[in-house]
Amino acid sequence: MISQVPDYVYQHKVVDYDKNMPLVFIGGMPRSGTTLMRAMLDAHPDVRCGQETRIIPRILGMRANWLKSPKERVRLDEAGVTNEVINEAITQFILEVIVKHGKPARFLCNKDPFTLKSIKYLKELFPNAKFILMLRDGRATAHSIISRKVTISGFDINSYSTRDVLTKWNRAIETMFVQCNEVGSKNCLPVHYEQLVLHPAAETRNILKFLSVPWNEAVLNHEKHMTNISLSNVEKSTDQVQRPLYLDALTSWFGKLPDDVMRDMATIAPMLRRLGYDPNDPTPEYGIPDPFVLNKSRTAR
């Protein structure tokens, strides 16, 4: 196992890195605030997340496909490619990508939304890892995915099928939410996007406490630290995350979803109610924003 690499230096010291590091994984459904969450953490001087790697969820998906195929499983076993070998290889692969795709930091994190479909497996590989699961009203997420033409593998975006997107949102977020609960509250923290936007100070204090990261007010003003935050030109949220916290996204879906979908919402997306959203309310009240947020919204206009 690689335990020390000369070109990984933090504060002028060579840093050891291994699977026991306190890594942070941020995930959830795309368009649920994952980019905002990682930008806020990236503004912290002790944390580095960086852009989506895109390759980490793919390697996890490959492993999942191997396990689904009994024939492939037999072939791998016959070749001596046991679960132990695969797990060690994937551990090192993920570790190398997270450590080396950005600048060194005291706390390293990864933000690839669908990585959290593998929370339980990642917890086995990285015993000290913690997970932040971003949750958002699925109706807002679906509207955002379709209106911004976000490409997601397996999602029918071209037909603008809100029903299909919501159905797949429900399936994906249920997988992540169940696993988040299974690894326990000490390891996985669900964060509602709406509450992060409305009450950023309280939410980020709770998040940093969960991660055992010292408090720093920079997380409340991520837009002022963009020179220190690496952004990707191919991520759809890049333009929005450069702005201060804003409230428009909370209600932009109101009145935009098809009537038949709204009528069947409780059946299409039962996870809405499970996550605390009322599927029958077409214009939900998510809460009253803090004065700090209102002031930011005014000055940003």
Automatic annotation (TrEMBL):
This is Protein-tyrosine sulfotransferase. GO terms for molecular function: protein-tyrosine sulfotransferase activity. Its EC number is 2.8.2.20. It is a single-pass type II membrane protein. InterPro entries: P-loop_NTPase (IPR027417), TPST-like (IPR026634). Belongs to the protein sulfotransferase family. The keyword Glycoprotein applies. Keywords: Disulfide bond, Glycoprotein, Golgi apparatus, Membrane, Signal-anchor, Transferase, Transmembrane, Transmembrane helix. It catalyses: L-tyrosyl-[protein] + 3'-phosphoadenylyl sulfate = O-sulfo-L-tyrosine-[protein] + adenosine 3',5'-bisphosphate + H(+). GO terms for cellular component: Golgi apparatus; Golgi membrane. It is found in: Golgi apparatus membrane. It is an enzyme of class 2 (transferase). It holds the Pfam family Sulfotransfer_3. Catalyzes the O-sulfation of tyrosine residues within acidic motifs of polypeptides, using 3'-phosphoadenylyl sulfate (PAPS) as cosubstrate.
